[in-house]
Design brief:
alpha+beta, Butyryl-CoA Dehydrogenase, subunit A, domain 2, four-stranded antiparallel β-sheet, 10 helices, three-stranded mixed β-sheet, Butyryl-CoA Dehydrogenase, subunit A, domain 3, 3 domains, Butyryl-Coa Dehydrogenase, subunit A, domain 1
């Protein structure tokens, strides 16, 4: 038998020493983004959340770090691994979901379809400027009457000579009113097609959605198209049908599965520190069995989510990733992150509802993350279909 060696208890944020499974480059990316969030995001994000404003002043710094389209190759993009991108999403969302959403939309929902389905001219025109943060993009799929059933969209694109004429409305669009270019999915005569619509095009207007209780440090808009004429050359030539937007959503869902672990980690660490220092009945509340049970469950679910995210990234980097695996990780990690935030709030008591602590900010944000890029219910049915071979959504 080997000699017993007493080892130090690992930190709550990494009970399974997942750090040891990362490469030097992966740790460097994680630590760089972590430092940026600590120094530049955390001092200002609660103020932006309270004011309902997006910290646009951070965009040049985010671009300077190479985070915009960082998992894409060529055209000025960093070309880093999927795991590196996931770790960046984790650290960004440890700061705020709105910041991770900005990076996800720019890279996975706006830049990715241009790279995957665009013409060479479209790639050369847009991608380098988007990687530098000089051009901001958004992704128009969801409509007022069509969310989960995106294939029922009513936004139309009618061919008129060398142009397409767009009519319709898109809703819940992150970055909508600050975007320089919108990737818009519309129903054309030949099926669903993607179009690049530039800001300032006649017939294209935006309006922001206000009075939000979630993702307040993020821009959420409607896109309106009224006889909006765009050149036929602005259509993405290399995809048609729902395969285009759904592949983009898979890219975004991947980042969400990682990002949720960052929000959960922040809530756990804050709750643990609070429980150790909060004295009630002449002792720290961390000494009470019920509080320890809550902390144990939170740490357990965080560890499971971290391992799910890492394996998801390894599969993606190996070219072995299946959309069902993304659904499983998105569903689990966001669901458990939301429950972690709610549990952490109970440990902080009344203090948990103030912006002095990040708990309720994360909890409110995660309510949106729970819904967007495929609701929890939709991902449940995607996994159910994979298990049974039966599509529960078919008539």
């Amino acid at each position: 038998m080997g000699q017993f060696v007493e080892r130090q208890v690992p930190p709550a944020s990494d009970l399974y020493n997942i750090d040891s499974l990362l490469s030097e480059e992966e740790r460097m990316v994680r630590d760089t983004v972590h430092k940026f969030v600590q120094e530049r995001v955390l001092p200002i994000i609660s103020g932006h959340f309270e004011a309902g404003t997006f910290p646009r002043e951070l965009v040049p710094e985010i671009a300077e770090l190479g985070l915009l389209g960082m998992h894409l190759a060529g055209y000025g993009c960093s070309g880093l691994s999927a795991v590196c991108y996931g770790l960046a999403c984790q650290e960004l969302e440890a700061g705020d979901s709105g910041l991770r959403s900005f990076v996800s939309v720019q890279g996975s929902l706006a830049m990715f379809p241009i790279l995957a389905f665009g013409s060479e001219e479209q790639k050369q025109r847009w991608l380098p400027a988007m990687a530098r943060g000089e051009v901001i993009g958004c992704f128009g799929l969801t409509e007022p009457d069509f969310g989960s059933d995106a294939g029922g969209m009513r936004t139309s694109a009618q061919r008129d000579g060398a142009y397409y004429v767009l009519n319709g409305t898109k809703m819940w669009i992150t970055n909508g009113s600050i975007a320089d270019v919108a990737v818009v999915w519309a129903r054309a005569e030949e099926g669903i097609r993607g179009f690049l619509v530039e800001c300032g095009t006649p017939g294209f207007t935006t309006s922001d959605i206000h009075h939000k209780l979630s993702l307040r440090a993020s821009i959420t808009s409607e896109l309106h198209f009224a006889d909006c004429r765009i050149p036929a050359a602005n259509m993405l030539p290399n995809v048609r049908g729902m395969r285009g937007p759904l592949s983009c959503l898979d890219e975004a869902r991947y980042g969400i599965a990682w990002g949720a672990t960052g929000a959960a980690r922040t809530c756990l660490v804050v709750a643990l520190d609070y429980a150790k220092s909060r004295i009630q009945f002449k002792k720290p509340i961390a000494s009470f069995q019920l509080v320890q049970q809550k902390l144990t469950m939170m740490a357990t679910e965080l560890t499971k989510a971290q391992l799910l995210a890492l394996q998801l990234g390894r599969l993606k980097d190996q070219g072995l990733l299946h959309p069902v695996q993304i659904s499983l990780a998105k569903r689990n990690n966001v669901r458990e992150a939301l429950e972690t935030a709610r549990t952490a709030r109970t440990i902080l008591g009344a203090n948990g509802i103030t912006l002095e602590y990040p708990i309720s900010r994360h909890m409110n944000n995660l309510e949106s993350v729970f819904t967007y890029e495929g609701t929890d219910d939709i991902h449940t049915l995607i996994i159910g279909q994979a298990l049974t071979g039966i599509n529960a959504l078919s008539s």
